[in-house]
Amino acid sequence: MSTWTASMFKRRNPALRGQPTAVVQYNGWKGGGLIAVSYEARGFGVKRSMRGDEAKRVCPGINLVQVPVARGKADLNLYRSAGAEVVAILASKGKCERASIDEVYLDLTDAANEMVLQAPPDSPEGIFMEAAKSNILGLPADASEKEKNVRAWLCQSEADYQDKLLACGAIIVAQLRVRVLEETQFTCSAGIAHNKMLAKLVSGMHKPAQQTVVPSSSVQDLLASLPVKKMKQLGGKLGSSLQDDLGVETIGDLLSFTEEKLQEQYGVNTGTWLWKTARGISGEEVEDRLLPKSHGCGKTFPGPRALKSKAGWINYVKN
Known about the structure:
InterPro entries: DNA/RNA_pol_sf, DNA_pol_Y-fam_lit_finger_sf, DNA_polymerase_eta, Rev_trsase/Diguanyl_cyclase, UmuC. It is found in: Nucleus. Its EC number is 2.7.7.7. By secondary structure, the protein is an alpha/beta fold. It folds into three domains: about 5-75, MutS, DNA mismatch repair protein, domain I; about 80-215, Alpha-Beta Plaits; about 225-280, DNA polymerase, domain 1 (Orthogonal Bundle). The protein contains 13 helices and ten strands. The strands form four sheets. It has a three-stranded mixed beta sheet with strand order 2-1-3. Strands 8-10-9 form a three-stranded parallel beta sheet. It has a two-stranded antiparallel ribbon with strand order 4-5.
């Protein structure tokens, strides 16, 4: 699910809708540090790594909104409440794992199974508009025929059962995203796949406010050219070791190594995990958890003022 930090302030102040907006940290040095940027502002080249003053130079019309403050730290209550609204809607259809304030995993296996058995999509004309906008990996890239191809894929009667489950999952997710927008005014992006790893990889592939589906037949193409560092848990030392010691640059490169070779290099558990990851296999289950494991907030380094005060210390709050 895409971040709703900037969207939350637009809901509180409708005048910001459609306007380039960024949320800034609460110290004022060089206009404050940006922690969230709306898609309108990103179109001008504004990035989260910028300070407020730099953002204004890049996008003179940008609206900078201050993070609420309580006891000298960022007040996260607004974000918690906004997240709870969205999660309540998503959890109505399946097991819901809240990974962070604005990221959720949803297990729709039971709901998709029920739809396949009782009310499967059987006509392209019967697929409602939001589901027909899905991005399905492996379909022809002709934009003029996209909706037609998506509708046909979602209701193909000759598909194997796994793809039928994905099709029903895509329809359910589209319905949920529409509900979230109508009831909270927040937009969501989503990835739909047979496991958490693949869903996470594609959830941000077609932002904003779109969903991407990974059929089983497209898994290898997705992973073949994916840089090692883009995979969760491979952004640090393990990913660097794969590059330096084995010459692995993409996840697809791992297919050249046997499970035994990877176990020999990195141990039994890690070696097996790498071997499975290269094949898009993940047994990680969605946990039934409606609260995120932690909320974090930090004070951005305020420059020279930090030499005269304690404002440069990092603060982290964990629930």
